[in-house]
Design brief:
11 strands, single chain, alpha+beta, globular, 188 residues
């Protein structure tokens, strides 16, 4: 399991309540996330628990049980999951945000977490959401991800885009364009 960052909507499925106790949802899984991100959210540091009680509660029920179970893998910098999957730092939305890059033969994809929240950000990559914690870094990271996708014909898999979800990023002299992948019905 990869947590691109530790916002509630990205860690809520990490755990489940069993007999009044939060435990990892997947007992045999490893949960990967950035050490920078973990340290940013850890409510035991300083007075974060008092300053952000909601965040502390989310951490306590959705992140801490994974750490306590020994199933967390804290990443420092880039991390090869295998020959095809590479986790890379992508700070800005949060300090330790990461993306997942897939390379399989000639096919490439970028699972970008919250680097892009809305398709308009492909056309206007300097536009942040109110949730981007380091606004200038978020812009730099967004440009870098979009440039990679355009240059390498890597499909963009954003978390929050509505259907059809998957996008091809096109480099243009004036910036970036987007073509969405056609939805498929049925399975082959």
């Amino acid at each position: 399991m990869l947590c691109t960052h530790l916002h509630a909507d990205h860690v809520g499925w990490n755990t489940q309540l069993e007999n009044g106790r939060w435990v990892p949802t997947f007992k045999k899984a490893r949960y990967l996330f950035s050490r920078i991100e973990q340290q940013h959210w850890d409510p035991s540091i300083g007075d974060r628990r008092a300053q952000h009680p909601g965040r502390a509660g989310m951490y306590d029920d959705s992140v801490l049980p994974v750490i306590q179970s020994g199933q967390s893998v804290l990443l420092d910098g880039e991390h090869d999951i295998d020959d095809h999957l590479l986790v890379q730092p992508a700070p800005g939305h949060t300090p330790g945000h990461v993306v997942l890059r897939l390379t399989d033969g000639g096919d490439k994809a970028m699972f970008c977490g919250d680097v892009c929240h809305h398709p308009i950000q492909v056309h206007e990559p300097d536009w942040n959401t109110r949730f981007c914690e380091i606004p200038e870094q978020a812009r730099v990271t967004r440009h870098r991800v979009l440039e990679y996708c355009a240059e390498h014909d890597a499909r963009l898999f954003p978390t929050h885009f509505a259907a059809p979800h998957v996008a091809r990023i096109i480099g243009k002299p004036e910036g970036f364009g987007v073509e969405f992948a056609a939805a498929r019905s049925g399975h082959s």
